Amino acid sequence: SGESGAGKTESAKLLLQHIMNLCKGNSQLEQQILQVNPLLEAFGNAQTVMNDNSSRFGKYIQLRFQKNTVQGAKLSEYLLEKSRVVQQDSGERNFHIFYYMFAGLSSEEKEMYGLLDPSLYRYISGRFGTQDVAQHWKHKYQEVCNALDMVGFKEQEQVDMQAILAGVLSLGNVTFEPEESNGSVKVSEASQGWLKAAAVSHRKVLLEVVVPSPLLSPSVSCCCFLCADARDSIAKMVYGRVFGWIVCKINELLAEDVDPEVELREIGILDIFGFENFAVNRFEQLCINLANEQLQHFFNHHIFQLEQAAYREEGLPWETITFNNNEPILNLLLAKPLGLLSLLDEQSAFPQ
Fold first, then answer.
1. How many CB atoms neighbour CB 269 within 10 A?
2. pTM for the structure as a whole
3. Domains and CATH numbers, the chain
4. Using CA of residue 106, residue 112, residue 113, residue 115, what is the dihedral sign?
5. Residues labelled catalytic
6. Where is the Myosin motor domain (predicted)?
7. What is the rounded CA–CA span in Å between residue 201 and residue 205?
8. 181 appears as a binding residue in the annotation
């Protein structure tokens, strides 16, 4: 637990390495567990104001043991900060993979995916980097490709994945304007090329999703806003599905090959996303901060309350340690039925 940049991800990686070393980590499986990190960081980490390589998702790694050797592992991912795909605050970047692609793809590959100059794309805020930074990203792109091969992505799957990511970037540049003849909304003439690049062969289907029926929209200006919102929602959903696809592939690779009747021992490592306080804190950041508060409460309860109760019970000479109890904060958000999240759930269930 801790704020962004405190060292949680690096500590988790060192802990994994240490466990593998204690297991005499020479097996292929143990090496693969260590090698999936570059892939997860490329798609799940980003530069924030506080940290150049900030985890924007939570991951829980379950290592399963038999006779002191790792027989399998499972990765669970939580709460990927998908809002970052479509919007970043000042001084921040989108997920690393977009920049790695621009730096690592050849000119021919960029042409194949329809990628233009990075400064043109709204979803990466027109910011790229210096030549030295681009060289570092190029190296990172190669690491990602190697990790994709190792995890078991076929060549065509890797091509499809990068086409999807390029499509997400193109989708961000699609804009909308009023249709003068009937008062509805259409994709602006200036962004027809971006729509074509984003949709590939499914332009009609994409249009049906992002441009609502004029009968459902109270005004043209509201309809333009709804279209932009639908466009961003699709981009976030698609990126989330790509990330989930990667995690599924990793779990297929790391699944244990043992007798199902044998009970395995397990070590679980939770690498949580960092606490941050931005100028504008969005819903994902609220959930991230709340998860950290819950972990802090868990530690407080075990370290301060249960431990000290055990010392008192055993009659040990002990000076009571006081601590800040954050339970009121958790109750404000999580209590049922009147916590903020319960009230939001209730309101969300109402029609319209």
1. 16
2. 0.86
3. 8-152+251-283 (3.40.850.10), 295-349 (no CATH)
4. positive
5. 4-5, 9, 51, 54-55, 274, 276
6. 1-352
7. 9
8. no
